Amino acid sequence: MTEQNLSFIDEVRRRRTFAIISHPDAGKTTLTEKFLLYGGAIRSAGSVKSRRSQKHAVSDWMEIEKQRGISVTSSVLQFEYNNFCINILDTPGHQDFSEDTYRTLMAADSAVMVIDCSKGVEEQTKKLFQVCKMRGIPIFTFINKMDREGKDPFDLLEDIENVLGIRSCPVNWPIGSGKDFKGVFNRHKNQIELFNDGNHGQSIAKSITGNISDEKFNTLLGDVLHKQLQNDIELLDVAGDSFDLNQILNGELTPVFFGSALTNFGVEPFLKSFLDITTPPKPRSSNLGDIDPESTNFSGFIFKIQANMNKSHRDRIAFLRICSGKFEKGMTVNHVQRNKKIKLAQPQQFIAQDRVIVDSAYPGDIIGIHDPGIFNIGDTLSQNQSKLQYSGIPQFAPEHFARISTTNSLKRKQFLKGITQLAEEGAIQVYKRPNIGMEELIIGVVGVLQFEVLEYRLKQEYGVYITMNRLPYRYIRWIEETTFNRDNFSITMDTILVEDKDKNPVLLFQNEWSVRQIIERNEGLILRETSI
Ligand code: GDP
Known about the structure:
This protein is an alpha+beta fold and 532 residues long.
């Protein structure tokens, strides 16, 4: 990284932190790699994938990702481009892991949604988009694979608007498609940018830019493409939504870009516009009001915990999003939820593809802190304000449940340790029947694939084999303690009463009819859909 003598404020203002979401295979990894290529963080494309497979070799619980071709957890990368310092948060594409995506989005200031131009909006895009929408952050759309024959660009815009329910506004418009994909037209600058081969995407694509009316483009594009572009632009100007920065920043309008991550065409124009439009970290809400990122008091929150990223180290990392102030290695901070002071000794950052020890970091950055088992998702760390708490990270209500126990009673200790750690990571939610010990646990997950990951990780990381019986419950409700009459509680046959990790009473139902029945039978009973 380049050493610059920038002030704290300059450092904050050059930060951009975004999450990247897509249906599997739309090209998220390829696009991320090309960002790194343009940022100079890697010298030639192709290295991310091979690094990824190397990582699989050491971090073998990720084997499951490889086997199924899906990304189970999200990771973080930092790189520099044009004096911006950019943090990318990768998210799992599969909907069964949308809980992880949600937590990751809590740490992002905007999102980039990658769509395959031949497929349009796909199933997982929808779900992930909804999660972004809940956060109200700006959502940028990158329509990828324009080097392949795909849907008509106008149809793709309609698809986004109809399926996702968000208005769209193209910033870059494609010139040709498939083999004839030549470049993009920037509607803001009224400028054409045509690309040259770029060594099949291995290196930065060279380009020719100029005004749309410039004669040379008639020759370069040919009469047909040039005319078609002019017609498209006229149509967009008349029929499309106009660019409205406020609406974009509020997540009500998505700016759309076209390109090909594979050939690099359109990648850099996207990156440049993205950096122009997005803002540095904004104030975050907390129990003490909005916290200004430019305030010099260091603060941040834990949004993700991941154990055993590297099996040989058996480490557990808590991911901290910095919200204000400068972070310095070795600093002592308040761990608000535990009411304790802790020293942040070996903080790590994820620069391009590597983990490095970090000396300093700024609002917008994500650092990994070694976690000896003291952190929970949502915890706040703060240098001076021991009472500061960032708004909590809500849990998704689980929709699938299973009863699990270990097949080997000698391994009970390991079993409970594994379950506890995975629950702390937020990978599963644990419930138990009141008055029954920890012999039998009920696990709740949002997506069924999480069960597979649970079984796999318990085996690989803790040497524990489990038996798992799926349960028919589909709905969960937390009982408002003050309305709960334990001695005179009427329950239906197909419903069970359990406790969550904090011993709160919780009901598991098979259908919505039973939910209504319980409310009718128990006067005054209040049920909540979330734990907080
Ligand atoms: P992810 O699952 O969203 O991370 O998708 P990947 O980046 O792994 O890409 C999935 C497949 O699509 C890979 O075979 C890529 O080489 C291919 N791909 C990605 N971007 C493009 C593109 O712009 N054009 C074409 N033709 N293929 C692409």
